[in-house]
Amino acid sequence: MADHHITLSGEVRARIAELGSVDILVGIPSFNSARTIGHVVRAVEAGLSKYFPGSRSLLVNSDGGSTDGTMDVVRQSGADFDSILLSPQDGRFHKLVTPYSGIPGKGSAFRAVFEIARELGVKACAVVDSDLRSITPEWMELLVKPALEEGYDYVSPYYLRHKYDGTITNSIVYPLTRALYGKRIRQPIGGDFGFSGRLASFYLGKDVWETDVARFGIDIWMTTTAVANGFKVCQAFLGAKIHDAKDPGADLSAMLHQVVSSVVGLMEEYPGVWRDVAGSEPVPTYGFAYSVGLEPIHVNLDKMLEKYRMGVTDLAVLYQSFLPPDLLAFLKSLADEPRDRFVFPDKEWVRTIFRFALACRRKVMSREHIIKSLTPLYLGKVASFVIETWDSTAEDVEQRLEELCLAFEREKPYLVERWERKARASVKPRRST
Fold first, then answer.
1. Above 90 in pLDDT, residue 246?
2. How far apart are CA 173 and CA 192, in angstroms?
3. In degrees rounded to 5, what are phi and psi of residue 299?
4. Mean pLDDT of 380-389
5. Full strand arrangement of the beta sheet holding 154-160
6. Biggest CA-to-CA distance, the chain
7. Digit-coded pLDDT (tens) for 131-153
8. Closest by Cα among 303, 308, 297 to 390
9. Could you tell me which residues come within 8 angstroms of residue 286 by beta carbon, excluding any fewer than 6 positions away?
10. Which positions ≥6 away from 417 have C-beta within 8 Å?
11. What is the pLDDT of residues 33-57, one digit of tens each?
12. pLDDT tens digits for range 355-383
């Protein structure tokens, strides 16, 4: 069991003692976010004042050692109540600004938020990203109310994003977690969540804070841990997610590694939960769904195709150690295709992902090596998807992603029947070299 009391400073403890108890806590993790965080703070304060005027609320900025004055911006920012036709929450809205300790990363920032929530006996919490340009006061109602008043423990965000934003979610994390656990949680690594105080305490009891979960793996870990342990989950429609977006062709390999590594670690922790799940079901969704204008994401297609082709050549020997010959042959033949005939079919992609998970399970080499070698193949799948959907509408793309999800669900027995077999194979005595 992890020691839960090591990360809060004496100053924070004194502030907790002074506050006594709080109904709602909203955490904002940050690192050098001075340019964007003021808007987020104003939206949070306005939302809490508008939708929960009778509740005591606390905004916690959990900062990773910013050098650009982020924490000062948080202290100085406040909602302009006259312009939004609201009255401030007199004496009911508080702020706590603190650096977090531990491994640098979002998970460590969240850990401090969970600890403060537990110490204050909070009923409902939310966490939101510090670079959000599209957050509105309504997000507070949608993320907090299901946990505060409707008996939900976990509120996942559901936003509309540009068709080429969130490619790790769309090509791997959403279809895989949906097939594993049977819940259609559309943005399992969305970044903005609501949760009950009870679930915050449950998270704290898990011994994960020295792992990749403490970096970028935290979002998928929170979602999966809630589902796998039978907590009541829903999602909330938040409109657009507009933030400092990343080009999918840019170097996402560190994020891909940490997220996929967390997914595989969770598969190893909860096989008894996911093994017998077949198909999937929707989860309750709150909020008024509407279509939104989205900022375009620029995609460097040639760069993605080049990285795929180089990867298939340079990593051929590594792939041979865990990919079956027919899949290897397919990946090589795809590398020879010109751009207009570059198609990475869903079935081959699903089996590729399953084989990578099985390789991690069998420990054929370090998990880091295995998952980092997925990057070029992931870029190939994204490139294929971009080529296929270049002229498609957002609705068409969502339908196309639904087909990918169904392929993961259909192919799941391929994974299940090999999972235990591979585990048994891995305990054979190894020959000494």
1. no
2. 16
3. -115, 130
4. 94
5. 93-99, 57-63, 24-30, 124-127, 193-196, 154-160, 233-240, 285-286
6. 75
7. 988 899 999 999 999 999 999 99
8. 297
9. 142, 145, 146, 155, 234, 235, 236, 237
10. none
11. 999 999 999 999 999 999 999 999 9
12. 999 999 999 999 999 999 999 999 999 99
| Residue 378 neighbours by CB under 8 Å, 6+ apart | 167, 168, 171, 172, 256
Kindly report the backbone phi and psi dihedral angles of residue 135, in degrees, each rounded to the nearest multiple of 5, phi listed first: -65, 140
3-class SS of residue 102: coil
Q: What is the pLDDT of residue 6?
A: 58
Give CA–CA dist 256/375, Å, rounded. Answer: 7
Q: How many CB atoms lie within 10 A of CB 364?
A: 16
Lookup result for tokens 């994401």 = 297
Residue owning tokens 């054979």: 428
CA distance 416 to 413: 5
Least-confidence region, from 206-220, 237-251, 285-299: 237-251
* CA nearest to 155, candidates 241, 51, 238, 235: 235
Q: What is the residue whose two structure tokens read 């509740």? A: 55
Q: Is 165 exposed, middle or buried (0-12, 13-18, 19+ CB in 10 A)?
A: buried
DSSP 205: T
DSSP 3-state of 169: helix
Helix (H, G, I), strand (E, B) or coil at 335: helix
User: Quick one: pLDDT at residue 242?
Assistant: 73
One-letter amino acid of 293: G
CA-to-CA distance for 323 and 1, rounded, in angstroms?
37
Token pair, residue 403, equals 């087909």
| Alpha carbons 302 and 340: distance in angstroms, whole number | 12
The partner residues of 240 in beta bridges, in order of sequence, read 160
What pLDDT does residue 249 have? 47
Residue 432 has pLDDT above 50, yes or no: no
**Domains, the chain, with CATH or none:** 10-286 (3.90.550.10), 301-425 (no CATH)
Give the tokens for residue 246.
Answer: 């990343």
Residue with the two structure tokens 């342990």: 229
Please compute the mean of the pLDDT values over residues 325-333 and round it to a whole number: 98
The whole-angstrom distance between residue 265's C-alpha and the CA centroid of its chain comes to: 15
From the list 125, 117, 128, 165, the residue with the least C-alpha distance to 145 is 125
User: For residues 211 and 249, what is the distance between their CA atoms, to the nearest angstrom?
Assistant: 26
Identify the CA nearest to 142 among candidates 281, 289, 2: 289
Residue 47 and residue 140 in contact, taking contact as beta carbons nearer than 8 Å: yes
Q: What is the DSSP letter of 234?
A: E
